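General statements about sequence and structure are easier to judge against a single worked case. When preparing material for the folding task, we compiled for one chain both its residues and its backbone structure tokens. The amino acid sequence and the backbone structure tokens for this protein are reproduced below:
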Amino acid sequence: MSRRDNETAAQARQERAAARGRAHGLETGWNVVSYLLAGMAAYGIIGWLIGRAVHVAVLFPVGMLVGLGISLGYIIYRFGRQQVAERPRKEMTGDR
């Protein structure tokens, strides 16, 4: 192989790696959006059903807000911990 072929192959590998990184970011974004919508929908439906049974209409938006809060907590737990695990640890030294 010539030097030009090696450079072309290396560039192709870098482009594929960059594309995989962008795809992973899109996947994470879609996961976050789907968790938010699913939490609001699920708890909104539960609030609507309970509100309809007890004749209190305010339980529908309260259920949606509860679902949003639970979803946000789960997103922070799941994706926040993932980011912490991927960061390299700094070594602690005595001099600062």
User: Anything to note?
Assistant: The CA atoms of residues 45 and 89 lie 44 Å apart. The mean pLDDT is 82. Helices lie at 3-54, 59-86. The chain has one domain: 3-85.
